[in-house]
Amino acid sequence: MNLQSAVLLILSASNVAGASNQCEPSATVKAWTFDREPGGGLPGGWEGSGGVARSVYGIARERDGNAYLKASSHDDGVQLGVEVQADANSELVLGWRWRVWELPSGGDERRVETMDSAAAVYAVFGSRLLPRVIKYVWSTLVPVGTVLHHPRSGRVGIVVIASGAEQLGSWHAVRRTLTQDYRRLFGGEPGRLRAIGVKSDSDSTSGVARADFDDFQLLHGGPCESHGRGAP
Asked: How would you label 145-154 residue by residue, b for 16+ Cβ within 10 Å and e otherwise?
């Protein structure tokens, strides 16, 4: 899927164990836990682009009843997003949990030809026509902590939160201060957050990627940067 389509999708829907947690107390702005969503379908308010969303995403449940968003990509580049309206200038934090089962072989976010990630979470800021996007990824090959811009657009920043197969099959909790990451990637103030989204894609490498997502939260509070193991 091309970059413009990926960005417009989210707008239209308008880590390792042992890492330290440096989050200050905060107040929840919005949360998506999927617990009240019917199994098998898409979560309410979330919309897809780049293909048939239901062929990749759907609500599933653990044995203990916990509901989560399941993604299974087979040579697909489908994205799923939900519209959000939140002030990102006052230390806006995005938290979520993810679990990767299968990495797209050869996926490397440094090159357009291999731009596949087993799991990605997007935050979209600014105008509908000229947004800026932060993309947090679980990469196949790119080292944890790498920060880069999309090879074809300086308006998309990529932050590698997790990498490789060592932690496959386990839930991991992530919290990022969107405001700080935006300043680091783009300079200036982010203004309003317009949307968030997820993607598990394998179309560039013509392979398979499988991941789960859960417990998205938007919070206003102090600085926060953590990515450790999260209990279901």
From this structure: eeeeebeeee
Range of the domain at 57: 3-229
Distance in angstroms (rounded) separating the CA atoms of residues 230 and 73:
24
In whole angstroms, what is the distance from residue 227 CA to residue 214 CA?
14
pTM of the model: 0.86
Q: How far apart are CA 228 and CA 232, in angstroms?
A: 13
Instruction: Give me the tens of pLDDT residue by residue for the chain, a chain 232 residues long.
Output: 444 444 444 444 343 223 334 555 467 889 999 999 999 999 999 999 888 899 999 999 999 999 999 999 999 999 999 999 899 888 999 999 999 999 999 999 999 999 999 999 999 999 888 999 999 999 999 999 999 999 999 999 999 999 999 999 999 999 999 999 999 999 999 989 999 999 999 999 999 999 999 999 999 876 556 666 654 3
DSSP string, 125-175: EE-SSSEEEEEEEEESSSPTT-EEEETTEEEEEEEEEEESSTTTTS-EEEE
Q: Look at the chain and report how many structural domains it folds into.
A: 1
> Tokens 């196949």 label which residue?
140
Beta strands 92-102 and 79-87 are: unpaired
7, amino acid identity? V
**CATH code of residue 99:** 2.60.120.260
Q: What is the rounded CA–CA span in Å between residue 195 and residue 47?
A: 11
Is the Cβ–Cβ distance between 134 and 122 less than 8 Å?
yes
